[in-house]
Records
---
Amino acid sequence: MMREIGGYLELEQFTGKEYHQGLYRMNLGRTALVWLLKKLNCSRIYIPYYNCDSVMKSVAAAGVEVERFFLDENLKPILRPDFALGENEWLYVINYYGQLTEDDILDYEKKYGRIIVDNAQAFFEKPVGNIPTLYSCRKFLGVADGAYLSADVPFDDELPTDKSMDRVKYLFGRMEESARDHYSEMLAETDKFADAIPERMSLFTENILRGIDYDRIRERRLANYRILDGQLASVNPFTAREPLGPFAYPCLVENGVEVRKQLAAENIFIPTNWSYLISQAPADSLEKHWSENILPLPVDQRYGEEEMTAVAKAIKRFL
């Protein structure tokens, strides 16, 4: 059937280039992982405790056995001295706040063999060789979904295409009103992802990703990161390396829960990464300590020196 001709105009079609060229476009990071594990015939995957619980739930629901491990103070896996991956087993390596270098990733591959890299917090880092690598778009960009996957496996032509039109209202709401007015909508849409299945990236999201000035975003994020680092200089394993196009500035404090409340009262909203670990991780674990006390301060492209200075001053005042 011929395409529709005439009628009202749709959203403008952008003709720029996406940042990640030639990668598989998927609907979500977690569904991309599930799809990849099936393609790899993976029977068991080793995943850090310091991670979103939705990832573990999605993988387990897909029939893949999940083994979890803790990290040491240098973000290295705590595994048995004789640890080795068995047949059809993979190790999940998370690039926390963009701290992994290419050499780090190659060292993991050399030591363990079959690894999958999670670059959800390192969107601007390129894949290393043929190592399977995942990216999440909505953690860095103003889209409601979308992920990229770099993997040397055949793609499914019959994979359905996701649709974003019913989940983008909160994005427009925040642009024209306030985050408070639409926060509950964002949470509701995010909760629906629990039942998501692997699909292609939506046409809406793909179009938006072709209209973004990635150089500006990367440079703005780095400039904001440097401002916060210059004023706060938080010493922790998540700031050992200056990342490329940072996800956030991880500021380690002693009373994170209280500081978040005080900042929220001043309209500075700081999330708790993987809050379930505060109650579920061992009391003396680094994972509990990090989840409770690391403030992932925003450095994204909406802000500049004025906002970064205000955030830094507020934190110094509360500390």
Note: The CA atoms of residues 206 and 221 lie 22 Å apart.
---
Amino acid sequence: MKTTVVKQGRIYSETLSYDGFSYKPEDCIACPALADLHVHFREPGQEYKETIRTGSMAAARGGYSLVCPMPNLDPVPDSPGHLAMELDIIRSSSMVEAVPYASITLGRKGRELVDMEKLAPHVAGFSDDGSGIADRSLMHDAMSGAKALGKIITAHCEDTAFPPEDARSEWSEVERDCELSLLTGARLHICHVSSKESIEIIRQAKKSGAPVTCETAPHYLTLTKEDRMPGGRFTMNPPLRSAADRDALLAALADGTIDAIATDHAPHSAEEKAAGANGIVGLETAFPVLFTCLCRKGIIPVEKLVDLMSENPRRIFGFPDTDDMAVFDVTNPYVITPGDFLSKGRSTPFEGWKVFGRCLLTVHNGKIIWQS
């Protein structure tokens, strides 16, 4: 069988053979399997929302073979013993490669640093995602420690002195952390960028030589606050912002200011969402939504999308190149139906959207982990 393959910035034809299925080149693309630097798998401690098994199944169904789970767990992976609990479950349950973060501070409370040296060999980096670190001196010490260990700080930038709807809640800490990255030389990766001010700060920080990278999420690239509807499907942190913010993000994709697209996959129970919990699921919708809204409309080419969702995330964190592959049907549309999700989470603003790019096949370590 033949299909169109996207790899390392090129599109070309290549003969593939998987389990006797045929993928026509005019219907499909194949590319390196996707990598997500920002997911919440909720285990240990909140298995009713998601488990490593169900989260990794959702990842495989979405074309991902590598994910980085965040540390807002119970217990928080802030010590070797706590981290070992998560790593044991990953080894026994995950269908994809899952490289977790350790927290930056004990209990993610923003007061005292973890023992980074003991945790560093086993984690992608350090993050208190879900919480900003208010203490500038503490963040300086965290960056200095990460720099010495060759690890990255992945920052949730949020100043709670401002309401989330005020973009200063995001960009004020983005500005501070970019300054600290330049000062310490530490690698800084900024989570879920949503505002035009943050984008400009990051752009200028890169020009100044700060080793800063950033991600945004599919919903910030395709929706605005004007699209919000009741019911919790549009409730996330940071919130959806203006059309001007969305347009700034799209421009930043084109000029390279944004390095990666991550889902911030964040499942909650239906009851929690109804009560206002922040977070939506995204692993099973990210590629189709972005291919439909960005590539089919000519905003970015599919090669660029693959860079942002696969090759750049691996490069930023120093993960090795992979032969893992995903195949997507980019010709035949389908409707996003949360009832079909493998994730325990069902809350998505893209419910009912007609999209192109259903994942047909995901291959990890030479084995098929998803086939539609």
Note: The chain is about 30% helix and 20% strand.
